[in-house]
Amino acid sequence: MNCAANRAHDGMRNQLSSPDATTFRFLWRSRAWLICILGAALCVVGQAAEMKPGEVVTNSVGMKLAWIPAGSFTMGSPKSEPFRITNETQTRETVAKGFWLGVTEVTQKQWREVMGTNPSFFKGDELPVEHIAWHDAAEFCRRLGDKEKKRYRLPTGVEREYACRAGTATAYHTGDGEGALRKAGWFNKNSGNKTHPVGLKQPNAWGLYDMHGNVSEWIAQRPAKDLYRTESKLVNLEIKDGRDHRGGSWGLPAGDCRSASRHRNNGKYRYFDLGFRVVCEKE
Ligand SMILES: [Ca+2]
Q: Based on the domain organization, do 137 and 275 belong to the same domain?
């Protein structure tokens, strides 16, 4: 019985050592390696697809946009913050989806390329465009979106403050007090009463410039889905409704340039310290 079993076992061993078995083992091992290699490759591709905070892309009009990751933050200011006003009550907010945000305010050169005009009071390709009503900014987004087949819009108030703070809880992304603002932006004490070329001051942790000062920036106040291809409806609405703008400007004191500071005007209002920057939604 034992001899028979040994013979059978020897037979199996001989079979496994045959050329067919060797080929099978080779193929099996190769497949295992192939799976390992494919897995590693997918891992690398996956990491590449995951954008890093502050990662920059450049669009068709030379506008740089930084990746703003999803996350939660405290919006508004603490009661102890100097110059705070009562509409800055702190709330916990979540930005559910990451998005691309203009690294700077829209420049006159970028505006001209999309709109074919330049309504600005101060002239210069790299100066921020101003004298822009809210619906002008919305129209710019619509045309740029049509040109690139992407979804451009104004940032919401939550998105704008979240991006401005970039993880900070101080009055400015550079810290507290006027000295901190001097590093980050142009306001009434360092501007010489005019706009300045974008991107000259210290950016925040996500690479955003002029989030404090230079020109104040119109923001969206409705869910993003309401901001597309409904221009005539929005124009009618804004006659009744005010629109917020954020960040303060070259003409305003330091207290009005804080991360939490909010300003409101009629959406038809055009002034030489009021411009905007854009969001491009992730496809
Ligand atoms: Ca600004």
A: yes
Which among 169, 170, 182 is positioned nearest to 213, based on CA atoms?
Answer: 182
pTM of the model: 0.79
Task: Give the domain extent around 34.
Answer: 2-48
172: Cβ–Cβ under 8 A, 6 or more apart, which residues? 180, 181, 184, 185, 212, 257, 258, 259
Residues 28 and 61 in one domain: no
3-state secondary structure of 75: strand
Output the CA 137–ligand 1 centroid distance in Å. Answer: 14
* Torsions phi, psi for 176 (to 5 deg): -110, 155
Token digits of residue 214: 């230079």
Q: Are residues 84 and 32 in the same domain?
A: no
Quote the ligand 1 centre to 160 CA distance (angstroms). Answer: 11
The 10s digit of each residue's pLDDT in 200-211 is 999 999 999 999
- Specify the number of domains making up the chain: 2
How far away, in angstroms, is 217 Cα from ligand 1 center?
Answer: 6
Whole-number Å distance, alpha carbon 216 to ligand 1 midpoint, is 5
Q: How far is the CA of 91 from the centre of ligand 1 (A)?
A: 23
Per residue in 84-131, pLDDT (tens digit) is: 988 788 999 999 999 999 999 999 999 999 999 999 999 999 999 999
Ligand 1 centroid to Cα of residue 271, in Å, is: 14
Q: Which of 278, 267, 272 is nearest to 131 (CA)?
A: 272
State whether 16 and 104 are in the same domain. no
